Request: fold
Amino acid sequence: MPVSPTTSARLDHLLATGQRTHRLPSVAAGLIRGGELVWSGAVGTVDGRAEGVAVDADTQFRMGSITKTFVAVAVMRLRDEGRLELSDRFGAHVPGSALDDVTIEQLLSHAGGVQAESAGDWWERTPGSDWDALVASGVGTRFRSGRRFHYSNTGYAALGRLLEVVLERPWFEVVSEQLLEPLGMTRTTLRPTGKAALGFAVHPFADVLLAEPEHDAGAMAPAGQLWTTVADLARWAALLGGRTDGVISAESLAEMVEPHHVVDEPGQPWTGAHGLGWQIWNDAGARSAGHGGSMPGFLAKQLVHLDAEGGEGPAGEVGDGVVLFTNTTASAALKDLPKELLRTLRELEAPSVAPWVASGSADLLELAGTWHWGPSVETARFVGEDLVLGAPGKGRGSRFRRVGPGADEWVGLDGYYTGEPLRVLRRGDGSVSHLDLATFRFTRTPYDPEADVPGGVDEQGWR
Reply:
């Protein structure tokens, strides 16, 4: 549902102010809520001239490194289809390069130690060559694979080649057929088509523009060549927010936005990490995911909130997102403007609140209440059908879900016990005796001697 006229006017003014303040030839943005584009705005013209054609939600901009997220999802689909494993060495599928021993997971998460850029001329401003030429140029690693996060455009060139070798057709054909077409992203292309903004550099000390070159980057294209529109990228943001439309499973998407490697910047607190293709940000405990994009003449940003609330960060609706493009090489606009637009949406258009309804099962009450791990006190409660033991996000608090209906087997969903088993142990009469959580005993009283506490309980008892 579109935002109100009042909110729209406020957002339009904010975007116009940003365009003027940051001296952007043009800027286009959109806000996503509930999987839909609820507002879009644009300021400026496609060629930077006052009398030129105005940009809008259907104007193409170069998305830069957001391209990597499409490549990553296509690779994850191969994993889900059983065509490869993330632990596979790259050379097992694409042999003959210095990257043979880097795993696919390390390439996806920028942890393979692969050099950041290609070995030839500045690839973003010069025509590219094919994979064989890229390999022959001496592309290799800078660090031991798995040691640290090291952002690598070259690593995504390798993943693009992986798609081509496994599926025996060009990487963009794979992305187009498997991702763009199902999502209706008809205006996302390898090169600009139709109405498209020209890329510029803005002089730092004068109000003049310099046109930036546009070309086919060849083997490096999977790192940042795609063009798209606000309307199209909003559909991709909706996927990240949970509307996957069968393109990728919810489980695989969740795996992709787990923080795999922290982005460590000396002297700065850790606020960012990288998952499998996606960037993840932590704003005072509230997480969001997406990606930034930068190519000569263009900047782009996609950000989607993953948490309804968390820590002291901004509260709002899961899936609230923003996409923004501008056709300038360098600007501080993308640091704050996307967040300001999203913050304004949340301030003026309160997220929907689903009414509470009784959705639990009475047979779960036998597990609710107070439990003891040794002398410590923990509370078990239910949110729907999920068991919450302790306070999630604090200490070892975790959520658990039944493995099969009516079963006494549960599995951890988050926190310390993610993936760990919880078993309900019963007495001969069927009543609950204690909980076994990854070998730890939780009993109704501290160190209950009848609950088979490992190591036994002192015969003299409490004294």
Summary: The two ends are 65 Å apart (CA to CA). The longest strand covers residues 286-295. The mean pLDDT is 92. Residues 1-354 form a domain with the Beta-lactamase fold (CATH 3.40.710.10).
